[in-house]
Design a protein that fits this description.
Elements (H helix, E strand, L loop, with lengths): L2 E7 L5 H15 L6 E7 L11 H9 L14 H6 L2 E4 L5 H8 L3 H4 E3 L21 H31 L3
Parallel strand pairs: 1-2, 1-3, 3-4
Helix pairs in contact: 1-6
């Protein structure tokens, strides 16, 4: 059984694709690439069809991650309801995700920074689009600090599925 993750921000050109590609890379490195599927989407249709923001793409390249294939898209209710983990990147994404997920929200919806190694006061990751490269660095750091715990979360679920014969 494939563990499905969807990362969600507003336009799907900065935060959520950064999270998607960071998670894909980390899951691959952890030997879980075949066991997990990661995608990203936006709550709005503003950027549908656009590539990743050049600043986000350049940052990912500096970390050895290729995001050239990314094309922004809006979230789809069915994909969200089929996901095992839906990661909101900021607080303003939670309500649209709760509406789309319905009762599945309690089981699958989390803030990405809920997975930070130590509890953080503010679990939101602010949109770096409005600023300069330093905002993208901050976004990367906040995403990166959560990645290891998300990989562990996936590993736990995959191992449980194996034990239960799913």
């Amino acid at each position: 059984m494939t563990f499905r993750i969807v990362t969600v921000c507003t336009g799907n050109i900065c935060r959520s694709p950064m999270a998607e590609y960071a998670l894909r890379d980390a899951l691959e490195q952890a030997g879980l690439g075949e066991a997990a599927q990661v995608s990203s989407a936006g709550t709005s249709a503003w950027e549908v069809g656009n590539p990743i923001d050049p600043r986000a793409g350049a940052l990912l390249r500096r970390h050895g991650i290729d995001s050239e294939a990314h094309i922004a898209r809006q979230m789809e209710d069915e994909e969200l309801r089929e996901a095992d983990l839906v990661l909101a990147l900021d607080h303003d994404h939670v309500d649209p995700l709760r509406r789309a997920l319905g009762e599945r929200a309690e089981q699958t919806l989390r803030m990405m920074r809920d997975f930070a190694p130590t509890p953080v006061e503010d679990t939101g990751i602010r949109d770096p689009w409005y600023g300069d490269e330093s905002g993208f660095e901050t976004t990367w750091e906040q995403i990166d600090e959560a990645v290891a715990a998300i990989v562990d979360h996936v590993r736990t679920h995959v191992e449980q599925d194996v034990r239960e014969g799913r």
